[in-house]
Amino acid sequence: MSLLAMLFVLAACSSPEQQTSIQTQEPDTSARYIRQRVVLPDVPQRGRVLDRNDSVLVATRTQYLLKLPRKPPLDTVALGQLLGWGPVATRKRIADALPYEDMPAGYPVELSLTAGEAKRVRRQRKDWPQLTLTDRPQRTYTTSVGAHFLGYMGSEAQAFYKQAKRYRRGRFYELRNGGLETYYNGLLNGNRGYLHPLVDSLGQTHGNWAPDTAFQQGQDLHLTIDVKLQAYAEQMMGRRKGYLVALDPRTGEILCYVSGPTYKPATITAPDQALVRGKLLEHEKMPLINRPATLANPPGSVFKLVNAAVALQLGAITPATSFRCDQTLLSCVHKHPQPKNLTLGLQYSCNPYFYQVMRNVINYVPDSLAQDSVGARHGNLAEWRRYVRSFGLDSVMGVDLPREAPGFLPTPAYYDKARGTTKWTYRSIYSLSIGQGEINLTGLQMANMAAIIANQGWYYTPHLVRNVGENGPLPRFTEKHRTLVDSVHFAALLPGMMAVMERGGTAETSSLADVGITVAGKTGTIENDGDDDHAAFVGFAPAENPEIVVAVYLENAGFGATAAAPYSVLVMEKYLRGSIAPKRKKWETRIQQRARNGY
Length: 599
Known about the structure:
Layout: H1 3-14, E1 18-25, E2 32-39, E3 49-50, E4 56-67, H2 76-83, H3 87-96, E5 110-113, H4 115-123, E6 132-141, H5 147-150, H6 158-165, H7 170-176, H8 179-183, H9 185-189, E7 194-195, E8 197-199, E9 205-208, E10 221-223, H10 227-237, E11 242-248, E12 253-260, H11 274-282, H12 291-294, E13 296-297, H13 304-314, H14 342-348, H15 351-362, H16 373-389, H17 412-419, E14 441-442, H18 443-454, E15 458-460, E16 465-468, E17 480-482, H19 487-491, H20 494-500, E18 520-526, E19 534-541, E20 548-554, H21 560-577, H22 585-597
Parallel strand pairs: 3-10
Antiparallel strand pairs: 1-2, 2-7, 2-8, 3-4, 4-5, 4-6, 8-9, 10-16, 11-12, 11-20, 13-14, 15-17, 18-19, 19-20
Helix pairs in contact: 2-3, 6-7, 6-11, 10-21, 13-15, 14-20
């Protein structure tokens, strides 16, 4: 190589905007070319996150950090006066910035300040030479809600990662809470522009060795979330364990997404929230778990809706089928009249009724298998599972959140192994009839299940982003999916779901008829050995033309009718009317009290 060429290579390597690769020799010439990668000067701005009404929820803004002196003493009263804080607030802010309580003096502390507070520090810099004020760009949350779906940037959560490694299940938390900031990271970040010229020893360009990359500004995410509804639903969840998912069944757009216990989204990345993060990591209720997406639980009696639809499709029952409430088969938790048809079976949530519905499905023996009841049961369970899976169950639906769980539906092979024999009977798997045992659904799947019923057989995959930049959602969220169950069978469920909310139904006290809203719903109470039962509810309103679907699951809350149903219908009423009728203000107050106390 000539001296001139060597100098050119060294110059290119030393340039902050260029990176050279190996030399290349074209096969048709004797010339040697240098592959360069030229970084264009423009740096993309990371996109914002906005709700469905264009309220900014997350944006990159200047963060002001005040570093306190490591050597005591520090006059916290005077510091509070400087910043405009009271003495109690000042001590609490400093304590929250420490990773452990009762930390020894001298641990480095940084406090986040507002622009106004930073201005006050600058004005009095001469009187406080021991304080250090810096600023840097940082993702800023303008809302105190939505932590579980907004998520955080991994690059800004390094302090949290280090803390998480010191605590039990730290890795579990780290992997599952990236939210939209992680899922859409590439689109939010945008692209710097890159050129890839082939250059000779004289600096002349001879085409490209790779396609150039165009500059792309970071894209804004316009969410499906209604932040006011989100704030209301989170207030009603509070410190309780569970979830609430509300979506528009016509589009699959998620209107609010609550995982409880709730916490503020800025907690994970704020430099002065180390103690709060530590408490979240150690909390017995595990608030950092993103429950609706990553945890799957038995759905309880709400699953009777799916079993009924599949049984109708398979011809195991008709809407007029009557069964005795035979307590020798399975007990009912409350007394009710005889369920003479499917509508009454749903209205009363009669366990023996649905035991017999599922028994008709599993124990049906076609003429071709008259001598093989074992084979018939295996085939019937496999067929049942095939129809149920078409509801988007036992699989990852593809929502726009990381680490979505698939849930679980048992197979014949699963029972062969679990029971230790292929000759298991319906009596050993009857828990499927009431949504217990081996069935597990996520909160997103529960809400989508209700949306399918509201739409009478079809759905769009639930999603949190309705527009990326000026475009629509990701293409897969505009694809309509259909179940294997005919729409007429879903229509047959509606009278029973409406009857649930009427006199004699399991959720009669949660009716919204007084404000002209007809709700269709189904309650569920999930047995929990050794502790209080879990409460569930799914429903939609208005029943005749659904605009909102709500799924609620409250752990250890007791009956679905008394715990989950009131919470659900309040969220429906808030969304459809904008306010709560005076008749239900006592409900609202009682639920808020439970939310604050965590039960």
